[in-house]
Design goal:
Helices cover about 75% and strands about 0% of the residues. With about 300 residues, it is mainly alpha-helical.
Length: about 300
């Protein structure tokens, strides 16, 4: 008995500090993730409140041109300063973010619907139909998103809906690939074989079993697509191809502030840039936490 217990006791001694260190490391990692999620949630909540409340409390006509107050530095009266025609930058940034979120959310939902439909169709049909659909996806993927978006927007007058259409038609490709892969994985499950053996049609199997199984991944793809859609809208507006020049758009504000930055006035460029970066990072952080919850073995990555 002694010969059998002593080695176990000898082996258990050196392992104890390592196990404790691993547990402490796991708790620190979990605490770091929790803190990151809370910070991202707080930033996202602040963005939503600003977008909802500021337009109700402060009407847009208060951003009227005031050349006597142009390019004033941040102060109590203008926390973000004023732009080159005397408009309050805080109000302009909030209204610009409102437009960017509208474009991002609507375009992400539309792209997710298109990508889910195409990916589910390819995965459910299989065979030559699957190969043909994926070749079309590869063809669109070979063209840079921004270049294709510029081509689509150039066919319409500047406005919100052309930008939404442009983003939706250029960002459904990754969702289609994800949904197709998930459908192919689900098709090998025993309950799918049982449904087919029971006489269920391909359409019924797709609607009742395959689509519900891919909805979590499709929803995650939609959330991850919102930051990219916001950046896409800002880039198009910066190039002068998005919203009209008189509209409040973060991309237009950054573009019009270039001359001010060269003159040493930093605030017309800094604050619109922060209003682009901070909300997108907050949304991406929340989406990354959701992805880790769905599949803890994979690190969250922003789909581009």
């Amino acid at each position: 008995m002694a010969d059998t217990t002593l080695p176990e006791a000898a082996d258990a001694g050196p392992r104890t500090p390592a196990v404790r260190h691993e547990r402490r490391g796991g708790r620190r990692a979990a605490g770091s993730r929790t803190l990151r999620v809370r910070v991202c949630a707080a930033l996202a909540s602040a963005v939503v409140l600003a977008v909802l409340l500021v337009p109700l409390l402060v009407p847009l006509d208060l951003q009227a041109v005031d050349l006597a107050a142009k390019l004033r530095a941040p102060s109590a009266a203008h926390p973000f300063g004023t732009d080159d025609v005397g408009r309050d930058l805080l109000l302009r940034c909030v209204y610009g973010l409102r437009v960017s979120l509208l474009v991002g959310v609507v375009a992400a939902l539309a792209a997710t619907v298109i990508g889910t439909a195409v990916g589910a169709l390819a995965g459910a049909l299989g065979g030559w139909a699957d190969r043909a659909v994926m070749r079309v996806v590869d063809l669109f993927s070979s063209v840079p998103h921004l270049l294709l978006g510029i081509f689509i927007v150039a066919m319409f007058r500047p406005g919100v809906w052309p930008v939404i259409i442009s983003v939706a038609l250029t960002h459904w490709l990754s969702t289609a690939r994800i949904v197709r892969a998930e459908v192919l994985s689900l098709r090998s499950r025993p309950y799918i074989d049982a449904a087919v053996s029971g006489g269920a049609s391909r359409l019924r199997v797709t609607v009742r079993h395959l689509l519900p199984g891919v909805l979590p991944q499709a929803g995650l793809a939609a959330v991850l697509m919102v930051p990219h859609a916001i950046w896409h809208e800002s880039a198009l507006s910066f190039l002068g191809l998005g919203l009209p020049a008189h509209e409040a758009s973060l991309g237009i504000m950054v573009n019009s502030a270039r001359s001010s930055l060269l003159a040493g006035d930093w605030w017309p460029t800094l604050f619109p840039g922060l209003f682009i970066i901070v909300p997108t990072l907050a949304i991406a952080g929340l989406a990354g936490a959701w992805r880790e919850r769905i599949n803890p073995r994979r690190r969250s990555e922003l789909m581009l």
